[in-house]
Design brief:
With 325 residues, the chain is mainly α. Helices cover 72% and strands 0% of the residues. The protein has 17 helices and no strands. Helix 4 crosses helix 5. It is globular and about 60 Å long. The structure holds 2-acetamido-2-deoxy-beta-D-glucopyranose (4 copies). The site of one 2-acetamido-2-deoxy-beta-D-glucopyranose has 5 residues, from helix 6. Keywords: Signal. It comes from Drosophila madeirensis. This is 27 kDa glycoprotein.
Length: 325
């Protein structure tokens, strides 16, 4: 089976859950595998908002961002009681360790090689079983990184953090469901090709839904950059945005040759959503939208009233004419 390595790279990186924002940082950390850096940069170039390139965002920018975030999270504490620079540095180091930790469990180059060799023989499941057995270690890597984040989270963010950690675990579990059956199926059914073919659309979905969450590149050096950073919470707004992103993405993936990739991605979203407390917020938003839509068009009662009003206004306009007759 012919496949483009970059598509599979994309898939693997995306599903392993390395956020796009790590892409910029990783490019500047010496201890990270250059192949991984290249993949992350490609991901970042494609999915980060316009202007977020390595050329525009320096390591110093990212460090300042982290420091500002750590400062802001601890602003209620007495001045001088926390060293935001040290906390930021700790996160940065933890990020490097996360990359190294995951890299030690799964070398992307090697996985691609193994996939390439296994797929003609129909042995993809063997490959994924091997890597899925390392799932507990991967979770531990994430947990260590998450621990370094804690001192720089606000009280509210911290209260959401356990949930986010659980969601991250769920995502990994989804990929490794039945020792990787799910992802083996995804690859066999041309999921990577489908993602690749849809990537501009997915980037648009991302941009439409989430562009408001990140500061513009030009604002990165502003004094109050911490105020421009998103809150790392999964509140009603984030839930609805995630749902919109899901609908947008799945709709595009449905156009691929087979429906399987779209189905798998959709069930991944569903699997993760079940773990969150998002459903009520999503239901409420959908209901409100339906109501708003009904008001503008579909509802016959409102529509009827609107046309009555229109006829009335028309009559008023015509009245002088009629009177003159
Ligand atoms: C990943 O594997 C390739 C090929 O075996 C190797 O050249 C590379 O150094 C490995 N990277 C890491 C980080 O181990
Ligand atoms: C970012 O870099 C690109 C070129 O990579 C440039 O065209 C753009 O103006 C830069 N944007 C900002 C805000 O610096
Ligand atoms: C904060 O920690 C850094 C090391 O990360 C150190 O260089 C700096 O002097 C510390 N600042 C204060 C005010 O303690
Ligand atoms: C992303 O969204 C922003 C704001 O909605 C818009 O200004 C920008 O042109 C979009 N960029 C792309 C590449 O679609």
């Amino acid at each position: 089976m012919e496949r483009t390595p970059s598509a599979t790279h994309l898939l693997l990186l995306a599903v392993i859950g390395w956020g796009c924002c790590l892409a910029l940082g990783a490019g500047q950390l010496p201890e990270v595998d250059p192949a991984t850096v290249k993949d992350l940069e490609e991901l970042g170039a494609h999915y980060l908002p316009a202007g977020y390139t390595k050329a525009n965002v320096s390591l110093a920018d990212l460090q300042r961002l982290l420091r500002a975030k750590c400062e802001k999270a601890n602003q209620a504490l007495p001045a001088g009681s926390v060293n935001a620079t040290a906390l930021g540095t700790a996160i940065e180091q933890a990020g490097g360790q996360l990359m190294g930790c995951i890299g030690g469990l799964a070398n992307v180059t090697e996985i691609l090689d193994e996939i390439e060799k296994a797929s003609p023989k129909g042995d993809l499941d063997v490959v994924f079983e091997k890597y899925c057995l390392r799932l507990p270690q991967a979770k531990a890597c994430l947990r260590d990184f998450n621990a370094a984040l804690q001192p720089c989270l606000t009280r509210e963010e911290r209260s959401h953090n356990a949930l986010m950690q659980r969601i991250m675990d769920k995502l990994l579990e989804f990929v490794c469901y039945k020792n990787g059956d799910q992802i083996a199926l995804f690859i066999a059914e041309q999921g990577p090709e489908c993602l690749q073919a849809s990537r501009d659309h997915i980037a648009t979905c991302l941009n439409t839904t989430f562009s408001g969450y990140l500061p513009q590149v030009g604002q990165l050096s502003s004094e109050n950059v911490a105020d421009l950073l998103p809150e790392l919470v999964l509140g009603p707004r984030q839930c609805v945005d995630l749902h919109d992103f899901e609908i947008c993405t799945v709709r595009h993936l449905e156009r691929c040759e087979t429906i399987t990739p779209s189905n798998i991605v959709e069930s991944m979203f569903r699997y993760v959503r079940k773990e969150s407390n998002c459903q009520p917020a999503i239901d409420r938003a959908l209901q409100e939208r339906r109501r708003a839509q009904a008001l503008t068009a579909a509802d016959p009662a409102v529509g009827g009233a609107a046309s009555l009003a229109f006829v009335g206004r028309l009559l008023l306009l015509l009245a002088p004419l009629v009177a003159r007759l």
